[in-house]
Amino acid sequence: MIFGRVKPLDAILETAKKKSLHRSLGAFQLTMLGIGAIIGTGIFVLTAEAAQKAGPGMMLSFIIAACVCGVAAFCYAEMAAMVPVSGSAYTYSYAVMGELVAWMVGWALILEYAVAASAVSVGWSGYVVGLIEHLTGSHLPASVLVFTKGPFNGGIINLPAAFIALLIMSLLIRGTKESATASAILVVIKITALSLFIFLAIPAMKIENFHPFAPLGFSGISAAAASIFFAYVGFDAVSTAAEETKDPQRNMPIGLVGSLAICTLFYMLVSAGVIGGVGAQPVFDAAHQHALPAGSSEMAAACSTLKDSHVVCSNEALAWSLRKIGWNKVGNLIALAAGFALPSVILMMIFGQTRIFFVMSRDGLLPGFFAKVHPRFKTPYIVTVMTGLAVATFSAFFPVGILADISNAGTLFAFAMVAIAVLVLRHTDPKRHRPFKTPCIYLIAPLAALGCLYLFVSLPLMTLKMFFGWTVVGLVVYFLYGYRHSNIARNISDDEEA
């Protein structure tokens, strides 16, 4: 039975016992960790995407996405506390629901990490190109701009996005890691940039810019929530710190809810500043009956005629908004902050992807060369090169919105599986020690799974088709290779021969 191929939880925990983790994190440290991990790409990059889907109603979208993240985080924290080893949702699924589900989760995590890194690369490109234009005081010629945008956005190839992805790949091959000091500095830069934006944009708000509040109805708000879910996914940094938390039953909820609440407040104030300062109404077709699909060639064509009159057409929404209300130099500083901070997010996304591949290869589900380590740098260089090239290719040709939606599809699927796994394990192994237990499990876990499903079906139809197509490819790969070569399969064969 495929679903019977469960990797024993006790065997997984043996790995964790080899390295004891010191419980040193309190509620404050967890909250700060969450804020640093959550605030980043989504709010800098996807504000314009959300505005095109929901208009001013994107403020509600941030709340919906935060609520789904919140209930999913509690489930994630319980599993992370019990299984504090590499592999994230893939490992949790392997221990509870078997090999096939674990494979599907691991395959989906490729979308979460690799495609997310591509989305961040495109976002970085938009801010850096915009900064160059404003520092030089002139727009780049059309012959140059076509090499800073993908085909969906009216260009040929996004070379800056591909460049930053390849640069980060080369750093990871050499084993470069962010130091604690560098990470702290980047967190300060991000929070300072958003605080400065709020301080300058809120006083410039005009109440008429909030009407109509939901031009595309609640379906538009839901679609925007599904897209900007991307802005919250860093919350799992708090969940995975459960094993290093003092009094986790008390401090984990404080850290999870606290970081999500503070970040949601930041996001709502930022979105209010954008909406009230410059307006955030969607761009409609010529008949003004249908909003143009975000990230489409039709949207790119409309934006080329609108020039700089709509925030939804901007590749650097926050910097653009400040320039429009008269803060040109501060807008440039916001773009500079994004230019410094976003590459660290790309690094962590590619790093996470390579480690998922590494663990799956070590389990025998992927060929062994994926786990091959560089003789000099001691890093999994083959899978890092493959991931880096894929990220560079995606970022060179696809717009940020489409990439974020695809990434969200993989993330939502993985999080839903974790919520189900927590509930299943409460039945199959109720006496196992749980350093952190999800409160009201029979309410929280179903809400997490249903919330993820709700956002999943709110994604664009094209995204869902791509996700299911990717899943079919993954199943083919599994049955052609992983099913026969996994470590569990080989152990079963050995036992039968014996």
UniProtKB/TrEMBL annotation:
Gene Ontology CC annotations of this record: membrane
Transmembrane segment boundaries: 27-46, 58-77, 89-110, 155-173, 185-207, 213-233, 254-275, 330-352, 381-403, 409-428, 440-461, 467-483
Pfam families xrefs: AA_permease_2
InterPro entries: AA/rel_permease1
Membrane topology designation: Multi-pass membrane protein
GO molecular function, one term: amino acid transmembrane transporter activity
Database matches in Gene3D superfamilies: Amino acid/polyamine transporter I
Subcellular location: Membrane
Keywords per UniProt: Membrane, Transmembrane, Transmembrane helix, Transport
Keyword Transferase set for record: no
This protein's record includes keyword Protease: no
Protein name per UniProt: Amino acid permease-associated region
